[in-house]
Amino acid sequence: MTGTPEDPRTGPSHRPVPAELRPYLEELVRRTHAACGDFLVSVLAVGSVALGDYRHGRSDVDVMVVVEPSLPGAALHELTGELAHPRLPCPAAGLELVVYGTDAVSRPSGTAGYLLDLNTGPQLPGRASFDPAQSPAFWYVIDRAVAHRAGLVLYGSPAERVVAAPDRTEVLAAVAASVREHTEGEGHLADNRVLNGCRSVVYCRTGRWTAKRAAAREIAATEQRFGPLVAAALHSFERPRTAAAALPAAEVRAFLHWVQEAVDESARTPGP
């Protein structure tokens, strides 16, 4: 075994895991280790948990698992069954778990590159993909970039040791693709489209990944024309997913077009 179990309540930044998730993540780590054995390298909380912005009843719990690439395929199928809701009841809106081989995350890449992409949970359509060609790459590029900077260790080696520093050009291409996805709006809540747009602009300005709500407050303070829309998105984000507010469609599109311009401009200039 390449690592030793960590207390899920702390990580390299000593940010606590939300109390609502602690028993769940402890059991997730236990089952992941049981399925992967000595091939398991790291289990990392990413997304809103890592960035300190988890909102119970609204947020997913995002987890990255890193394994030796020689892990037998049968172990991935076993893991899928062991972690599927409701066999392991997910207290969050859903679990988004991605398994990578060390060979895929030890160098920058603009590809999806996963061994398993598992979505499961009470408010998340179930999905288990073993073929990265089935998925748009940009989500995974962004998640790995966040993981390198902020991944919260639940087990094993720290994120910065196993996940390579991302290539800025590849990350900006991924951010641009994510903004296009959110502009189309299919399958995305309006408030999340706006808040992700705010986070994209803050990344372009600063080179750092920020919690969505903190990014939104930063954009509202510096871009007053979008202040009412961002405030409405923040207010809606405090509600459960099923009670999310509808936001003016034309204003959301105009905002995301502005975000796209900011990303394109960042891609043309040296980074921060």
In short:
With 272 residues, the chain is an alpha+beta fold. It has eleven helices and six strands.
Write the layout of secondary structure elements.
Layout (H helix, E strand, L loop, with lengths): L21 H15 L3 E7 H4 L10 E7 L5 H11 L11 E7 H4 L10 E5 L6 E3 L8 H13 L1 E5 L2 H4 L5 H17 L5 H17 L5 H11 L4 H11 L11 H19 L5
Parallel strand pairs: 2-3
Antiparallel strand pairs: 1-2, 1-6, 3-4, 4-5
Describe it.
It is a single chain. This protein has helices at 22-36, 47-50, 73-83, 102-105, 138-150, 159-162, 168-184, 190-206, 212-222, 227-237, 249-267; strands at residues 40-46, 61-67, 95-101, 116-120, 127-129, 152-156. A 6-stranded mixed β-sheet has the order 5-4-3-2-1-6, with helices on both faces. It has 272 residues and is of the alpha+beta class. It folds into 2 domains: 19-162, Beta Polymerase, domain 2 (2-Layer Sandwich); 168-267, no CATH class. Helix 8 packs across helix 9 (212-222). It is built from 11 helices and 6 strands.
